[in-house]
Specification:
binds pyridoxal-5'-phosphate, 13 strands, Aspartate Aminotransferase, domain 1, seven-stranded mixed β-sheet, four-stranded antiparallel β-sheet, 343 residues, 14 helices, 42% helix, Aspartate Aminotransferase, domain 2, alpha/beta
Length: 343
């Protein structure tokens, strides 16, 4: 199977498996797991924040961040298609008692004036704006890189109103690799950031939240409340440390493969590419084939290719470290055979 469903499907490398076996461990709820401590220190350094905390998933990381930043009744501002709004089961409302207010962005980027207009003023009728959430790369915008300059402007608007900014950076390392800048070029325009170790970076489990020392102390309490305080979790932090320090350099290869995949698919008459393919995500528009997304996905599956639905007439293909050049060739041949009429 050529599995292009997500970069989450990546399996731990040989080196990660060995590191898991050899990891020094302790009870992390007592703050006694040396491997977790090493990971958190390294993550804080790379993300250029005072402190960091290891959490079970990106969703848990975003939830803990929102719960730590906000009070019930606050309003959280986010882009219309943000993962936190679209794909997290309404968790921030369910657990945090906050309401969301979405802003329509352009390829994942919010216009700073739209943000300014959405921030609530002093009025007895209004909820308080508690947090601005950004996302980079932006998943539903097809892995788009939100420009650093845009983040700087949004951060400035938020700061003028003393509102914190949280970055959902599940794929932040993809953005940094593509622009050839350190991740701190993005995180300096945020109060807190969540990054996934288990996507393109290839760790089996885990995310990091980074922020100020007092913020992370409070986040630790929320993690415990949510049942995310784990014990000898160094066995999971060890591959996370490899993901963080050794896997980012190869992300550009995923992006190049995604672009080659998109180029090939573009040559097929009935298919279109819906995104700019800046990173590792390709969004394919299938409407002109006259076939349903489900039908297309099951035909592809029969040819050994897995993808996911992304909209009523779109599918998403994601490259990652287990997708090779040969897999791209094979996928393109399968697409050509299935949709025939080559331009
Ligand atoms: C995958 C993803 C998450 C959630 O991560 P999980 O580890 O799957 O919970 C959050 N935000 C974005 C943008 C993502 O792509």
């Amino acid at each position: 199977m050529i599995d292009l469903r997500s970069d989450t499907i990546t399996k731990p490398t040989e080196e990660m498996r060995k590191a898991m076996y050899e990891a020094e461990v302790g009870d992390d709820v007592y703050g006694e797991d040396p491997t977790v401590q090493k990971l958190e220190e390294k993550a804080a350094e790379i993300l250029d924040k005072e402190a960091a905390i290891f959490v079970t998933s990106g969703t848990q990381g975003n939830q803990i961040a929102v719960l730590t930043h906000c009070q019930p009744g606050n309003e959280v501002l986010l882009e219309e298609d943000a993962h936190i709004f679209y794909y997290e089961g309404g968790a921030i409302s369910a657990f945090g008692g906050v309401q969301t207010r979405t802003i329509k962005g352009k390829r994942g980027a919010i216009n700073p004036n739209d943000l300014r207009n959405a921030i609530r003023g002093e009025d007895v009728h209004f909820p308080e704006t508690g947090l601005v959430c950004l996302e980079n790369t932006h998943n539903r915008a097809g892995g788009a890189i939100v420009p650093i300059e845009n983040m700087r402007e949004l951060h400035q608007v938020a700061q003028e109103h003393s509102i914190p900014v949280h970055l959902d950076g599940a794929r932040l390392f993809n953005a940094a690799a593509e622009l050839a800048v350190p991740v701190k070029a993005f995180t300096e325009h945020t109060s807190t950031v969540q990054i996934c170790l288990s996507k393109g970076l290839g760790a089996p489990i885990g995310s990091i939240i980074a922020g100020s020392e007092p913020f992370i102390r409070r986040a630790r309490k929320w993690r415990k409340r949510l049942g995310g305080g784990l014990r000898q979790v160094g066995v999971v932090a060890a591959p996370g440390l490899i993901a963080l320090t050794k896997m980012a350099d190869r992300l550009k290869a995923d992006h190049e493969r995604a672009r080659r995949l998109a180029e090939g698919i573009r040559n097929i008459t009935d298919l279109k590419i819906n995104n700019q393919v800046e990173t590792n995500i390709v969004v394919v528009e299938t409407e002109a084939t006259g076939k349903s997304v489900d039908e297309i996905l099951s035909t592809l599956k029969a040819k050994g290719i897995l993808a996911v639905p992304f909209g009523p007439t779109t599918i998403r293909l994601t490259t990652h470290h287990q997708i090779t050049d040969e897999h791209i060739d094979q996928t393109l041949i399968a697409f050509q055979n299935l949709f025939e009429k080559v331009k």
